[in-house]
Design a protein that fits this description.
Layout lengths: L1 H33 L17 H5 L4 H7 L2 H11 L15 E6 L2 E8 L2 E6 L7 E5 L1 H9 L3 H7 L4 E4 L3 H6 L2 H9 L2
Parallel strand pairs: 1-4
Antiparallel strand pairs: 1-2, 2-3, 4-5
Length: 181
């Protein structure tokens, strides 16, 4: 009779462990496919001044191209939804993106939905985005233009890391957003 009680307890423990594993796999699969969600990121203006989009709306494309710098890259990455990529669940490596804009190379790391942009290339990027400054300005001015730029080949995204890592970090939804596929 004691063995029957122990057997039932062991059976319940096994069932609970299996349910937890199944739930964990389900959560992992959901976030791999749909990402952790993004509400637009935390761009902040510090003192509540005008946003970059407001500033460039008052100048010509040529003037904006001449001003193009790391801040433009940051805004461009938020415009395309890069803040939505994330670490692989239970992983330690943040998503890393290399951006080549008109021959000027930057790298960005996404940490908890916040994008940190630095000058220069990087060796361990997950993806590489290539565009011109003119295309970058157009995408910042009009988020609806992003898909057109990538579809028409005026901008490109190269998947550098392995497919499993890219899927785990949520790049598939970003890729789908960029290409409209």
């Amino acid at each position: 009779m004691i063995w029957d009680k122990k057997g039932k307890v062991v059976l319940w423990i096994i069932v609970i462990v299996l349910l937890l594993i199944i739930a964990g796999v389900g959560v992992y699969a959901y976030y791999t496919i749909y990402g952790f969600g993004s509400s637009g990121g935390n761009m902040g203006n510090g003192g509540g001044g005008p946003s970059l989009r407001q500033i460039i709306s008052n100048i010509s494309n040529e003037e904006a191209v001449n001003l193009f710098d790391r801040d433009f890259v940051l805004y461009l990455l938020y415009s395309i939804g890069a803040q939505g990529v994330h670490k692989v669940p239970f992983g330690s490596e943040n998503p890393v993106i290399e951006i080549d804009v008109g021959g000027e190379v930057y790298n960005a790391e996404v940490v908890d939905g916040k994008i940190i942009v630095r000058d220069g290339g990087i060796d361990n990027e997950d993806i590489r985005i290539v565009s011109s400054k003119e295309e970058g300005i157009k995408m910042i001015r009009d988020q609806n233009y992003v898909v057109n730029s990538f579809r028409e080949g005026k901008s490109s995204v190269e998947m550098v890391a392995g497919e499993l890592e890219l899927a785990g970090k949520g790049y598939l939804s970003l890729y789908n957003k960029l290409t409209g596929e």
